[in-house]
Amino acid sequence: MQTVNVPPFPLSGGCQCGRIRYRLKAMPVVFYLCHCTHCQKQSSSAYGESIRVRAADIEIEGQPKGFHVQAESGAQKVCEFCPDCGTRLFHGRRPEAETFNIKGGTLDDAAWLRPAGHIWTRSRQAFVTIGADELSFDKGPATYQPLIERWRQMTGQT
Ligand SMILES: [Zn+2]
Ligand SMILES: [Zn+2]
């Protein structure tokens, strides 16, 4: 198991052009990678990076634009991006949601991130290798609890 050296809070981040900025004031709930085909599309890359945060722990400056998609799991989710530069920023942010996901690459310093695990690995790109000791789910996990618990161990919260 890898350990994560989390930098001191708050952490800052934003879109590529700087119109949307955010500050994360406390430890994320979990960080994982999603290899579903939707995340390959939304990231224009091999996988999506999801940092789940508590809504109360984040301050956002600027107004992202949102639209709804149907996830591979069948669930509807709102996806938000910068209206100027198109950078994908947040998934699942709704007024009633206690948590939502930040896209990991939007952190100003993302070098410290180590994923708690991988989901939807059945559609992962062949060149992406997953370590034998890394949590891995063929599809979406029935519950995120194993990933959350691994993240807590990796970040020294237990
Ligand atoms: Zn932007
Ligand atoms: Zn995905």
UniProtKB/TrEMBL annotation:
Residues 11-113 form the CENP-V/GFA domain. Signal peptide: none annotated. Coiled coil: none annotated. Gene3D superfamilies: glutathione-dependent formaldehyde- activating enzyme (gfa) (3.90.1590.10). The keyword Zinc applies. It comes from the Bacteria. PROSITE patterns: CENP_V_GFA. SUPFAM superfamilies: Mss4-like (SSF51316). The keyword Zinc applies. Keywords: Lyase, Metal-binding, Zinc. PANTHER family: CENP-V_GFA DOMAIN-CONTAINING PROTEIN, GFA DOMAIN-CONTAINING PROTEIN. Belongs to the Gfa family. This is GFA family protein. It comes from Asticcacaulis currens.
